[in-house]
Amino acid sequence: MAGQTHSHTDQTVTRRVYSRDPDAFGVPTGREEEWRFTPLDRLGGLTRPIQPDGKIVVDVQAPAEVSVRTVGTDDPAIGGVHTPSNQVSALALAGIHEAMVVSVPAEVAASGPTFLTMRGEGGSQYGHLLVEVGAGAAAVVVVDHVGTATLASNVEYRIGAGAALTVVSIQDWEPTAVHVESQTALVGRDARFKHVLVTLGGALVRISPTVRFAGPGGDADLLGLYFTDTGQHQEHRVFIDHNAPRCRSRVTYKGALQGEDAHAVWIGDVLIRPEGVDTDTYELNRNLLLTEGARADSVPNLEITTGEVLGAGHASATGRFDDLQLFYLMSRGIPETEARQMVVRAFFAEVIDKIGVPELVERLTTAVDDELAKVGR
Amino acid sequence: MATLAIRDLHVSVDDVEILKGVDLTVASGQTHAIMGPNGSGKSTLAYSIAGHPKYTVTRGEVLLDGEDVLSMSVDERARAGLFLAMQYPVEVAGVSVSNFLRTAATAVRGEAPKLRTWMKEVKAAMADLEMDPAFAERNVNEGFSGGEKKRHEILQLALLKPKIAILDETDSGLDVDALRVVSQGVNAVRASTDVGTLLITHYTRILRYVTPDFVHVFAGGRIVEEGGPELAERLESEGYARYAALAGSGPAA
Ligand SMILES: Nc1ncnc2c1ncn2[C@@H]1O[C@H](COP(=O)(O)OP(=O)(O)OP(=O)(O)O)[C@@H](O)[C@H]1O
Ligand SMILES: [Mg+2]
């Protein structure tokens, strides 16, 4: 696999601007660090205010102890965790009329996962989701995006002290969808946050998950799996803000790319602030190029402003599919499709094995196999 | 009874002709040894028969029981009964040996072996080759020592039971004990399955365990002399100098 990329000197992390006011950012030109990888002409107009004309139908399956409701934007909880750091996110926050809230009361362990299926039925839309998990509670929330939409959205996770939240966000859109989303998690003292981002579909998907800590001892495990096909732009911009002592973060993103103009972007920003003493962080991104014509940009960026870290590292590698491996497997009688599946499944296993939501393992394994079959080789 | 017939085989790599007309017939139960200097094209022959994408056959044919091997895909060749123990086995990250072996056996046999008998079969085959059962849970060839990789190749030979096996320098890199164990493994397969064997080697020491019926001298991309086991002894003492002229302009020229 190819080498590592370092860019410690890049001050993009600390130069981040936060505001609810879209004008604080201005309309993106593509020259900004924030937007330089994104084809702005393919954002479906989301860089300017839109008149929402689309429809997203939400199907909810939740255990009784988990409440799922819709609130108005005057609800004080909305925007309490997430402050936009780009203009599309600010436009979305300003443009919503309501928000969806998933709440798990303190000290309650949800008896099963909560599934939110968001089915886009065309048109443009703004969206907002807040997931609140009270102190000492535990829950698994799966958010599934299907159908098609041009969607700008924000997601907030408020995780109470000692709580455990697993979120799986699946972008299984139809090929026409455009989805730009910012997410922010506030991880409470000694709380655990597992975040799994799966991007399979869509024409352009750009998700920016941010993690921040509300107290010491928090743990954030961010897993990503993407399969970028012909013509797709899939961008994942992770930011871990180590703003509290003794927190741990792991970022593991793996992507397979195939086909002409398949483009994946991974940005992994980690900032260890002066208060982030005894931070333990490691981020990794690996890309597997299955065919010619696909491109992966991978930019890890670690900024350390305290002398006392437990561990801080990153790795990024992009490699081609190994034809020798394929030959070896096939020389033992294994048909090509199956041999490819074995290699790609093995590549993703590190992520899929860690998701820890049994309901999803088979679906994701099958989804990867199906993606692989698409090229029809 | 199976026959692998190689006729007038010419093979190029990146437009450089490496094999310049190879004729060789291997039948069930026979063991043919191929010996020849480095770079003479022995592995090229082995890989070309297996269908490695790097090699282009420009002339000639390879037939297995009259079937055109060259028109088959790599996996079809294996399912037709060909097996190549590679000089440099490939690491496959994240794929366990047990998953790999079962998938291969399922493909070659046309149906998934029954789990219980399969486990026994693998265990026994590994024991025969004095392989630690822990290898089953490791990833294919990943971090294996040179000798361990070779044992793993012969383990596959034992489990896949091909009609014709090509062993490319399976003996290289083996210590004396490993050589004995691996040779016994090869002999056990020969005894139980009547496999036809094409054994590529630089040393007579493996031939003391695995006695060849025929020895072929390979030089400059073709077979330049053939004989019985005694030819191997002579090569070991005299080297290949006398074949330099016969080889003509070598592939590196
Ligand atoms: N891409 C290439 N271009 C030119 N020559 C090549 C290329 N690839 C391989 N060769 C040459 O083909 C020749 C045959 O190689 P091969 O591996 O078949 O030899 P061998 O007889 O197996 O040698 P050894 O005993 O060292 O294993 C070598 O001279 C090698 O350098
Ligand atoms: Mg060789």
Can you tell me about this structure?
- The complex is a heterodimer of chains A (377) and B (253).
- Chain A is mostly beta strands.
- Chain A has one domain.
- Chain A is built from four helices and 16 strands.
- Chain A has helices at residues 87-95, 323-330, 336-355, 358-374; strands at residues 56-61, 67-72, 98-104, 114-133, 138-159, 164-171, 178-187, 192-199, 204-213, 219-228, 233-242, 248-257, 263-272, 279-289, 295-304, 309-320.
- Chain A has a 16-stranded mixed sheet that branches.
- In chain A, helix 2 (323-330) packs across helix 3 (336-355).
- The longest helix of chain A has 20 residues, at 336-355.
- Chain B is an alpha/beta fold and 253 residues long.
- Chain B has helices at residues 42-50, 74-80, 97-109, 115-128, 146-160, 176-193, 205-209, 229-238, 244-247, and strands at residues 3-13, 16-27, 31-35, 56-64, 67-68, 82-85, 92-96, 139-140, 164-168, 196-200, 214-219, 222-227.
- The longest helix of chain B is centred in the last third of the chain and has 18 residues, at 176-193.
- The N and C termini of chain B lie far apart (41 Å).
- The model of chain B is unreliable at 249-253 (pLDDT under 50).
- The A-B interface holds A 322-325, 327-336, 338-339, 342-343, 345-347, 349-350 and B 50-53, 73-75, 77-79, 83-84, 86, 89-95, 99-100, 103-104, 107-108, 139-140, 156, 160.
- The complex binds adenosine-5'-triphosphate (ATP) and magnesium ion.
- The site of adenosine-5'-triphosphate has 15 residues of chain B, from strand 2 and helix 1.
